[in-house]
């Protein structure tokens, strides 16, 4: 591991790029730095941004130290491990950490590529991992087999999925796995990299000659042959919990172990980077700041569960309204995604190859699904057409006598509500965007999702949403974004994939007759998409921090495009 350019935990804050809410956490943009955490130091409430393709290492050099409330955001494309522990003695607590966005196998400094957490051979400290979420890392989730030489690793309420080699790699006689989960359902392990045939993704891997304690934990090997591997004469005492998959080695002693594991994220374990950084919890009253939560805040669970299960073939947008309260949930292995939300009782979001879930009271009133995803209510698949209309919202633009041009953007699908097709010279409707003009008439549209932006290019008009007049300035930007970015697939039959990050605001566009595809995703300022023999375009304001293109498409950036 290269330690050039290292900083200490105390001075690392100079590398921050500003937080979304500075009262909750600070954001550190990865640029290859090593942040040292020394004796007695605490590193907490940090969002580490990996979306620019760079890496960062948290190097724990001293005992009696703490890493708490840290979220690593974005697919990792670097090398090595994110957290490396070298402390020669003392206790180390790593608590409420999210490493669930995974990594690609691009690094070669370590066998099998990059990993999440590494207990170094020089370490001899006692580490407790509590409420940690580690998914999609080629070279082990928690690589802690060096505890065979001294020290220990204890896992409490941790979650691992689709990690190469293993999730929990342990060795010391005092190592323990308690109330934790690990499983595999993807033979390619994590996102964007190929698996190994010689090293399958075992949930648990135990070093030869070691004895490990496992309590109330759940493991499943998925398509791989072994859920637990006991190397050499290694042994493990497993009490409670469940295993699905075989055990390699004869040293497993079982007591009250089921064959039907529960594979959901343990309560209190973060399901997103922002959730971890801000110190939030997963459907529990447990505090991650060392104090017990206020018992008065703990109310009864909402009676119904709605689960939206995505499909990797395409993006699915959804929206629903319930009769009673609605809250996000991590039941059934769902995530609480940053793109999901609840606005005035209406829940909405986007899924691809993951799940979103919500608990709610009362009856389900409306449900709109755009894409191949499937919706389950209390475990039963439901038909969205049985609940309300496909495009449940009505937007009216009422002219005031003067020519007025406008642009509307929704986070969903929008259509002109008229008997005839719109005149191309007057109204342009493309997926989630409308451009048109009115004078005395009223134009009516139906849409799904949330109203994201209403912008008047010139003139003014009254705007009504579901029968209530609204203030357009409260929706998105009040001025049109000035710059255009175009990805042109040309006449090629070969698709091109792209991703980029804007230091500012970005929205989809039909500039130069570009298509607006539902499978192209904008997540905060980070954009991902695919283009074949057509155009994708975006309006933006600010600078392009990072751009990656795979394929033959051409890229054109037009600054101040609206003035040309």
Automatic annotation (TrEMBL):
Polar residues bias: start-end ranges: 253-262, 279-290
Region of interest (Disordered), residue spans: 246-300
InterPro entries in UniProt: Pectin_lyas_fold, Pectin_lyase_fold/virulence
Name recorded for this polypeptide: Right handed beta helix domain-containing protein
Species of provenance: Natrialba chahannaoensis JCM 10990
């Amino acid at each position: 591991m290269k330690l050039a350019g290292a900083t200490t935990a105390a001075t690392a804050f100079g590398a921050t790029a500003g937080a979304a809410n500075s009262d909750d956490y600070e954001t550190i943009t990865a640029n290859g730095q090593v942040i040292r955490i020394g004796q007695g130091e605490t590193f907490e409430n940090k969002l580490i941004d990996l979306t620019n393709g760079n890496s960062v290492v948290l190097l724990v050099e001293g005992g009696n130290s703490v890493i708490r409330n840290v979220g690593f955001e974005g697919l990792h494309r670097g090398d090595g491990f994110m957290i490396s522990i070298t402390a020669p003695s003392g206790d180390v607590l790593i608590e409420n950490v999210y490493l669930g966005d995974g990594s690609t196998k691009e690094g070669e400094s370590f066998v099998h590529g990059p990993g999440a957490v590494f207990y170094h051979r020089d370490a001899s400290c006692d580490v407790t991992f509590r409420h940690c979420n580690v998914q999609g890392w080629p070279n082990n989730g928690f690589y802690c087999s060096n505890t065979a030489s001294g020290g220990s690793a204890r896992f409490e309420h941790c979650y691992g999925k689709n990690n190469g080699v293993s999730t929990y790699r342990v060795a010391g006689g005092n190592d323990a796995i308690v109330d934790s989960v690990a499983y595999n359902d993807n033979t390619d392990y994590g996102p964007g990299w190929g698996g190994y045939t010689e090293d399958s993704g075992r949930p648990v891997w135990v070093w030869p000659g070691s004895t490990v304690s496992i309590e109330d934990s759940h493991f499943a090997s998925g398509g791989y042959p072994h859920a637990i591997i006991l190397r050499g004469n290694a042994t493990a005492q497993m009490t409670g919990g469940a295993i699905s998959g075989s055990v390699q080695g004869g040293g497993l002693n079982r007591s009250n172990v089921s064959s039907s594991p529960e594979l959901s994220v343990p309560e209190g374990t973060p399901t997103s980077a922002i959730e971890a950084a801000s110190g939030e919890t997963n459907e529990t009253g447990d505090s991650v700041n060392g104090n017990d939560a206020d018992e008065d805040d703990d109310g009864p669970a909402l009676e119904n569960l709605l689960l939206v299960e995505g499909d990797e073939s395409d993006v699915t947008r959804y929206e629903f309204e319930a009769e009673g309260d609605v809250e996000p949930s991590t039941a059934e292995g769902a995530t609480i995604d940053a793109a999901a939300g609840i606005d005035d009782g209406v829940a909405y979001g986007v899924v691809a190859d993951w799940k979103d879930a919500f608990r709610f009271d009362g009856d389900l009133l409306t449900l709109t699904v755009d894409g191949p995803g499937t919706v389950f209510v209390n475990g039963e698949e439901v038909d969205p057409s049985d609940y309300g209309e496909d495009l449940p919202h009505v937007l009216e633009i009422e002219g005031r006598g003067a020519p007025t041009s406008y642009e509307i953007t929704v986070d969903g699908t929008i259509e002109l509500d008229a008997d005839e097709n719109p005149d191309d010279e007057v109204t342009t409707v493309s997926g989630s965007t409308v451009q048109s003009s009115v004078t005395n008439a009223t134009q009516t549209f139906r849409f799904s999702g949330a109203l994201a932006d209403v912008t008047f290019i010139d003139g003014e008009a009254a705007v009504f949403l579901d029968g209530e007049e609204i203030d357009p300035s409260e929706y998105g930007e009040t001025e049109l974004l000035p710059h255009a970015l175009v990805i042109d697939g040309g006449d090629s039959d070969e698709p091109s994939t792209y991703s980029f990050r804007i230091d500012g605001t970005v929205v989809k566009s039909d500039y130069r007759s570009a298509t607006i595809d539902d499978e192209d995703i904008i997540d905060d300022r980070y954009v991902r998409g695919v283009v074949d023999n057509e155009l994708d375009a975006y309006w933006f304001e600010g600078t392009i921090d990072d751009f990656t293109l795979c394929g033959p498409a051409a890229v054109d950036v037009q600054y101040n495009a609206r003035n040309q």
